[in-house]
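Thought: the user asked what Mitochondrial integral membrane protein looks like in 3D. I have the sequence; next I should run the structure tool and report back without guessing.
Action: structure_tool
Action Input:
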Amino acid sequence: MSSMWKGSKKDNGDQLTAEPPHPIPEDDVSRSSRRSYEPSRRSAEEPNERTRLIARPPNSDGYLDPDDPAVSPYNLWTVRAMRYLTILFLIISFLWWVLLLVSIFVSPPGLHTRGSGFFDFAYTCLTIGNLLVATIFFVTPARGLRITTAIIAVLLAVDMIIIVAAPRIRLEEGWVGIASVVWAVVMAVWCILTDRVVAYGKKEEEERLTGRAETRRTLKEWLAVTVATILTVVFIVIVFLMTATLGMRTRDSTLSMYGERILVDGDKYAVHLACVGNVTYTDDKRDATILLEAGEEPSEYDFEHWAYAAYNNGTISRYCYWDRPGYAFSDNAPSPHSAGMSADALSEALAVAGEEGPWILVSAGTGTIVSRIFSSRHMKQVTGLLLIDPLHEDLLHRLGGPGRGFMLWAWGVISPLGTVRLAGAVFKGRTREDRVYGRNAYQSGKFIKAQLQENLVADSLSKNEVSSARNIQSSDTPLAIVSSGIEVRKDSEWERKQKDLTTLTDNLVGWDVVNKAPHQVWHTLEGRSVMEKRLKALVKAAAKVKLQEDEE
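Observation:
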């Protein structure tokens, strides 16, 4: 080859280029070519203080599209911090909710309230609901949502004032109830503040990244706002009903009572005890006092009326009655609470009030379980037993069924709404007496809690206590039983168990089955007459037993 370079024809026409005798590697060529062009490219693309951090899309005016995921209030640390705090508050509220749920069944030390505890639970449920709405719909703030939450906060603040200002309500709810409602108010205000901060952050980020605040909403955002608003409107209805029920409770708490409330069980709760008539003596011996124990209803609801009629006509000279924990004017006891614990509370209340025996116990229904335990623990003071359609210990499983327990719990959870009680007061003219110890007493949270407590231990603790009481019951105690004819006819097992109860002692005064009487035997004239006749026989039998003891 005469020349050092050899010409070659390329694809771009007749232009000749020279090839070096030793081919240059392709990587070296590309590097050398990049070196020749890189300075100018670097000078054009070198980032500076005016360079955008986010690349501009093609044909853009320099702003992001409003639907770009980068346009988010989460860009602000304050918004992220508030979300984290909202989740933290939700966790705290859930843990408190669990603790209150457990305390309905087993009262932890220091967490017992003298009320039902269902209001505390309801406020915590409402708090969790508010925080869940704020968390789920965090990035879709709306003015309507803030307005509805503000209404909730105002109503909760009214509840807080009522609980703190009304002495009896404050006593029943205790520090647990006050803490629950205060927390509910604070969290409602927090939800309003959070929504407002997110709305401000959303507007700021849209102006910075898109050039203007977005006024339109996507279908998804409208759906989120609608659902959140509907939920908060439901919360408004709930808290309004709770406020109305709390106001009704405040009015009911001013109802006067006969007798006094006595603190028992280490001053954990108070029970109502009342006595009618003066103490009388025969041959320097104190005459027996009738001690009433109601069944499934408070003593004041027509059972005590029968005793008052017997007192007026001279059948008895004196009687006392009380309300078991959770009934009428008595506070709720800590959970669990058995029939034996009620008997002990009655014993303590009588001792504090200075009441002494001898006693003739008159009880009905489930109250007969308490009376039998009381009798076995005060054998020398009990001189007679009148059991009215009594509940047998072998039938306590009916009282302690799990299905009944769940229904009582569910009814208790919604009891703060007070829909039935409010409707009764507004449309049927129900009075305070009806709600506290009358026909509507079963609708109160305290009463439901007491029934739930009886249910939880009926077939365990209470059954063991009454079975032991039967074994140690004095055999010479005068006994009379009056049974419901309706109950006996429709339930053969009930009839067999009524007959078995006639063997509680060896001194049976009589067993009567009142033909047309219901479980509340005193609701019929014949039932009241039979009960009074048997009570007279017990008074005479008790006097005879006392005389025999004196002679011995």
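Thought: the tool returned a structure. Summarizing for the user.
Final Answer: Structure for Mitochondrial integral membrane protein predicted. The chain has 17 helices and twelve strands. The first strand starts at residue 6 and ends at 9.
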